[in-house]
Amino acid sequence: MNLKGKTVGVAFTGSFCTYEKAMEQLEKLVTTGADVRCIFSNSSQNIDSRFGKAKDFLKKAEEITGNPIIKTIAQAEPIGPKGFLDILVILPCTGNTIGKLANGITDTPVLMAAKAHLRNEKPLVLSISTNDALGMNMKNIGLLLNTKHIYFVPFGQDDPIKKPNSMIAHTDLLVETLEQALEHRQYQPVIQSFL
């Protein structure tokens, strides 16, 4: 299945070091012919970091997609009853978001979008970026790996020497992962080396 004509939600959380790659993937998604809608978490809307200013990322996402950004819980909630997304990816998906999602917490626009989308039994894809994937968050990742309608962009350890618990997604496999998830399949192998 290809993404042409599909409505793809892309939700940003606060792993700012991955935003350059995320923006590249936004551009790639648009070239597939998908209608791309972005959701930004509170942190991603408001925190400036050494990787750039929040307002610049919001502006760039809006320019790439041609669509307004969903910025509030109230704006994200209709994703459920209106069912307008075919698939949603959280890119990047931080450890904080993973933990909250695994425990049913809905306190940001991104988590509301995920909850609302899953209500429709449509695929939710996680593109993880977390320093504690092999630490405190491993139990949450394990839970989500076994949750119906949730799929993962393949991921691996990005720096096993300096950050042995850290794992990030292979964002270059995003389109292929979304295509598989729309067919209710997990792209394999889900764990892939960066070495």
Relative helix content: 25-40%
Order of helices and strands: EHEHHHHEHHEHEEEH
Q: What is the global morphology? A: globular
* Beta-strand content estimate: 15-25%
Mean pLDDT: 95
Q: Structural class given helices, strands, pairing? A: alpha/beta
Low-confidence stretches: none
Radius of gyration: 15 Å
Q: Terminal Cα separation, in Å?
A: 30 Å
Total strand segments: 7
Oligomeric state of this protein: single chain
The number of helical segments is 9
Instruction: Give a quick account of the main beta sheet: strands, pairing sense, barrel closure.
Output: 7 strands, mixed
Summary?
InterPro entries: Dipicolinic_acid_synth_B, Flavin_trans-like, Flavoprotein. This protein is of the alpha/beta class. It has helices spanning 19-31, 42-46, 54-65, 73-76, 79-82, 95-102, 109-119, 138-145, 174-182; strands at residues 7-12, 35-40, 87-93, 124-130, 150-152, 155-156, 167-169.
Detailed description of the structure:
By secondary structure, the protein is α/β, with parallel strands linked by helices. Helices cover 38% and strands 17% of the residues. The protein contains nine helices and seven strands. The protein has helices at residues 19-31, 42-46, 54-65, 73-76, 79-82, 95-102, 109-119, 138-145, 174-182; strands at residues 7-12, 35-40, 87-93, 124-130, 150-152, 155-156, 167-169. Strands 1, 2, 3, 4, 5, 6 and 7 form a seven-stranded mixed sheet that branches. Strand 1 (7-12), helix 1 (19-31) and strand 2 (35-40) form a beta-alpha-beta unit. Helix 1 packs parallel to helix 3 (54-65) and helix 6 (95-102) packs across helix 8. It starts with 6 loop residues before the first strand and ends in a 13-residue tail after the last helix. The mean pLDDT is 95. This is Dipicolinate synthase subunit B. InterPro entries: Dipicolinic_acid_synth_B (IPR014214), Flavin_trans-like (IPR036551), Flavoprotein (IPR003382). One of its GO terms (molecular function) is catalytic activity.
